[in-house]
Every structure is written in structure tokens, then in C-alpha cells.
Amino acid sequence: AICGHGCKYGECMGPNKCKCFPGFTGKTCNQDLNECGLKPRPCEHRCMNTHGSYKCYCLNGYMLMPDGTCASSRTCAMVNCQYGCEEVKGEVQCLCPSGGLQLGPNGRTCIDIDECSTGKAVCSYNRRCVNTFGSYYCKCQLGYELKYVRGHYDCVDVNECVTNTHRCSLHAECLNTDGSFKCKCKQGYRGSGFDCA
Predict the structure, then answer these.
(1) Which architecture characterizes domain 34-112 according to CATH?
(2) How many CB atoms lie within 10 A of CB 23?
């Protein structure tokens, strides 16, 4: 089976027919499925969508149980956690619904970890890190675009000279470079390439 546009998070099952891995959707399985919007809802109280998955958390005063349900807890109500809590060896600990969040100094609210600035994020060559609340994703560097090439998605150089997205002077030549472009004044003209006289 050949899928001309590829199956980013899935496998090709027939001519241009993708079977998506759990948590993904779309014709080429390139979109994250928002499980929190599904009916029936996957979480009893609150739901946080994540890339390819989701996390459940409870309202204050409730404790997240191993099966994802929320149980009323007097001890949790007293601690006043932002995202519910768990009891470990008789001690109450507040929870954060994602590995990209950490407990704040007060031990009750969750604050975002900026994976891009802490170096925890792993983005391949020619991709840049974009921080999100509780996570991050990798985006093509400026001057590159995501394309399906030779069986997988890759960030490919945009030829600004062909797409006409350069700002060269009418009296200049556009020269494509990796991730960018240069402007060179034509013979008989002088200047920066953006302005030629």
C-alpha cells in the first residue's frame, strides 16, 4: 500500500488510506486527537489534552484514583491543591497533570516548565522548540517548511526566489540560500540588493 501524502502518526493500510495510532486523527494522521472533547468524556472531572494522549485531574477536595476516577477526600480538601492530590504513605501531595508542569513554591499550584530554555526539549536539526503550557513542540526553523519527502516528514528549505517572498530590489537578482536568501544588485547598479541605484 502506498500513501502519497504519508501517514505521520499511523500506518498505510491501502492506497492513500491511513490507520492512525491512538491519539491521532486526520487523513494523514498528522493531527492530535482532542480526547477531552470525546463523548463519553474520558475523565470524571477535568481533562487536559496532550500530544497524542490526555491526562485526567480532579477538582479541589478530590483525589485521583488509579482508574482515573475522582474520590472525595477530606485531606485533599484541606490542602487546597490546584489539580487534585494523592496520598502517599499517609502524606498528602498535590499533583500536576503533565510532566511539563511542576509544583510551585507553595506546593499547591502547578507552574509551567519551559523545556525550550531548560534544554529538556529535543528537536531535530533545522527545527526550533516552541514552549506550550505543560509541554512543547518542534516547529520548522524560519525559512523552512514541513513537507512529506521520501517516505517521511521533513523540514525543507523554502526557495524565496521561486515563491516570490523575497524583498529584493527590482534591479537585483535573488539568490536562494539554506533557510534564507540573498539579493545582489544587477550589473550597472550599486547598493545593498534591497535598494539598488
Answers:
(1) Ribbon (2.10)
(2) 17
Q: What is the pLDDT of residues 146-167, one digit of tens each?
A: 877 777 778 888 888 988 878 8
Contact between residue 91 and residue 76 where contact means Cβ atoms under 8 Å apart: no
Using DSSP's 3-state secondary structure scheme, residue 131 falls into strand
Whether residue 35 contacts residue 54, with contact meaning beta carbons closer than 8 Å, is answered with: yes
Contact between residue 11 and residue 54 where contact means Cβ atoms under 8 Å apart: no
The values of phi and psi at residue 77, to 5°, are -60, -35
Partners of 62 in beta bridges: 72
Buried b (16+ CB within 10 A) or exposed e, 118-137: eeebebeebbebebeebbbb
Residue type, 185: C
Query: 4: which DSSP letter?
Result: T
pTM here is 0.50
Q: Which fold has domain 1-33?
A: Laminin (2.10.25)
What confidence tens digit (pLDDT) does each residue in 66-121 have? 777 888 777 777 778 888 787 777 677 888 888 889 999 998 899 999 999 988 88
